[in-house]
Amino acid sequence: ESGRAIGEAARFYKVPVDRIIIFHDEIDLAPGRFRMKKGGGAAGQNGIRSAIAHLGADFRRGRMGVGHPGDPKLVHAHVLGDFAKADQPWLEAMLNACADALPFAIKGDDERYQGEVMRLAPAPKFSPRQAANGG
User: Fold this and answer.
1) What pTM did the predictor assign?
2) pLDDT tens across 41-53, in order?
3) What class is the 2-122 domain?
């Protein structure tokens, strides 16, 4: 139901949909990766599905990579659970970079915003061998 609150706030404050940025976790991006996108579908993300229902699809999205747990049965717990302590450094860096680069997003320059976030907080390098062994 997050889309209901966003939609009501947008209408009350008369914020055009294309000026709204919704930041959300994205399992289709590696941990620490960041992408800006405008429009599109929900891709199984319930919060985005709710936002589309109440705003339409033309809002901007800050897609914050959290990675896929590997097994589809583990997705629910992965996205609703707490981050591991080992994830804190890249997570904190990405959140700080999203805040520090925000002037570019406010100006509507999503490409520059995305680039600046990734410059300030480069995604960690994960070894596929390490990931397969649980690390």
Assistant:
1) 0.88
2) 998 899 999 999 9
3) alpha beta
